[in-house]
Amino acid sequence: MMTNKLAILIGFALAVSFFLIISYPGGSGLAESSSELSLAINTTDSNIVYFTTANENSGDLLSPANVQQTLNATVATTWSEVLDLNKRYSLDALILGEDIISEVNREELTQMYQDAVIIAVFNTYAPTLAQLVSDECIGKDGWMDGNDPYKGDFFIIVSKLFQGSLQAQQQLRNQNSCDVNSSFDNIEGYSGVYASKSQYELASAADFDVFAQVFLLEIQTINDYKTNLANTP
Question: How many C-beta neighbours within 10 Å does residue 144 have?
Fold first, then answer.
């Protein structure tokens, strides 16, 4: 059952991921089973922070202890800790607990998101997340707007990677178009934009396993893109 859920969720994530005049590098490994994925993705190679003040010993799926154990994440309880960890280790991903959303600095989180740090939130709907990272595309067409709310816990994962010269990347950030058919021929040094978003319920340990696998797969995908860009003349 968990493998089926993983396949469904990855398919959904692919459906809502998009490129703007790009080429997707091969070898993504999306056909692997959940057990193969867990072997293929090494959490020790990823810099993940969970920003929360939740009770360490709550025993809940979203508790710091469970997230830390499952994802090898570092727990931060203040925004300054998050910034310090990002400065020291260049984060791959940041998870925001619902209890601490009000403590997030929007401008600084937006910068992290635009620098291709993957952002995940628990029990926070797309309109709030879109405001936090200054990306209206996240909530486009009413996606995860809370009008059909989950009955329990859920997650959202979003990521965006601008490809091209530094000047082109800044122009792409400023343009912030949600139209997958937009033309960027006027942007010199442009090569593409990768964006992805996914969501699912967290009603059981199996669901949390699905979250972990999709989350780690997204980290691997972004890092593969970064490597590919670094090796492109």
Answer: 21
